[in-house]
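Message: I would value a second opinion on how I read folds in C-alpha cell form. Give me a protein, with the fold worked out from its sequence. Write it directly below this note and I will take it from there.
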Amino acid sequence: MLLLHWDKAINNETLKMGAFDISKRDQAIKRLESRRKSGELGFMDVSLSREKTAQIKETVSYIQKHGKDFIVLGIGGSSLGGKTMISALTNKFSNKGTKVTFIDNVDPDYFFELLNVLDLSSTVFNVISKSGSTAETMAQFLVIYKMLCDKLGKKEAVSRIILTTDPEKGALRPLVRSMGFNSFEVPQNIGGRFSVLTDVGLLPAAVAGIDIEGLVKGAQDIVKTGLNNNIDENSVLKYSLIKHNHYIKGRTCSVIMPYSTKLADFSAWYVQLWAESLGKKGLGQTPIPATGATDQHSQLQLFMEGPKDKFITFIGIEKTSTPVELPKFDVDVEAFSYLSGHTMHELIRAEMLSTEKALSENGVPSVRIEIPELDAYHLGALFMFFEMAVALTGEFLEINAFDQPGVELSKKYTYKMMGRKGY
C-alpha cells in the first residue's frame, strides 16, 4: 500500500502529541466519522455498482465508436482529478484510441485553437458542472452546442454531449429530461474537489482505458484504516498530525513534490484540495506544487535557504516498468561516465533521497510517501489518502473543510458583471 517515511527532525513524541493532545485528536476523528455516518460526507463511500459499471461501459463504447476525441469541459474539481488520471496512467505520446482532452478555462485563444483543429463529426463532449451555473463551463457549452447544431443538426448535437451534473437539482438536469442528453451524476454529498472517484473522473478515465475498478479499490482500502485512532495503524492520521504539528510551529507552506512527471498534474489536484479546503478564518497552509527532479533546478534553492516556513511531502515510486538503462559512451568522460551501468529509475530515486537528506540537514522537515508502482490501484489510494488527510486536518483546525465561501463570493461578482438577474 502506501509507506510513510519521515526525517530525523520529526521524533515520535512530536508525532504522537506535539501541541495537540490525544483527546482532541480522538474527538476530531469522532466528528469526522459522525459526519460520514450522517450522510454529509460521501467521498469516503465511493463505490462502483453493477449498474454504474454497465452505464459507464455502454457510454464508453458509444464514445469510442463515434469519437476520435473526447473533450471534457469543466473547471477546478471537475477537471483536475480526471486530468491527473489521464496523465498518470496513459501514454500522452500515443495516438492510439480515443484521445481525452480537458479544457478548463475560457481563454478564447486557447479554446479556439482546439476547436479549429477538431473534427466535430468525430468528437464527443462531456460537460461537467454540478450546479449547471458554472460560468466558465456553461460558456464553453453554449459555444460547443451551437457549433454542433450548425454542423450536425440538433439531434446529433444532443447525442454528442454528455452532461455530468447534480442527480436532481441544478440548471442542467431539466435539459437531460426535456432534451434527452445522456447524463452522469455528481453526488449531492460530494463536493467538486472530492469528486475525482465519482462519475466526474471515472468516465474520462474509462474512455482512456484506465482500470476504474482498481482506482476505486485502492481508495476503499485507505478508508478501512483512515478513521482508526491507533496512530501505528493509520497512515492518514500519522501524516495529518505531522503536518498539523509543524503548521502550528510556523510551517505555513505545504510543498507537494512527486518524483514523477506523470504525477505533475497530481500536484495541481492537491493544490486545489489543500487550498480550498483549509484556507479559511485566517488559517491554512499555502500549497506549492513541485515535480522532482525538475524543480530541484528551480524551486529547491528557495526550499533550502529561503524562509523556514516550508513542509515538504515527497511522493516516490519504488518500481517502474521502464527503468531505462544508461549505456556506456564511446569516450570515457569523467563528468558523466559514472552514470553508465545505472538506470534512469535509480537516478531519479537517488535525486529524491538526496534532496530529502539535504533538506533535513538544513532543518526543513519532510515526509516521504512511497507507492510500490504507479497503477490505478495506488493512484486511487493516493487520492483518498489526501482527501481524508485534508478532512482530518480541517477537524484539527476546527474549520469546515467542505465549503468555499471565498470562491462563492467571486462567483457572485462575476454573475453581476456579466448581467445575471438577481446579482
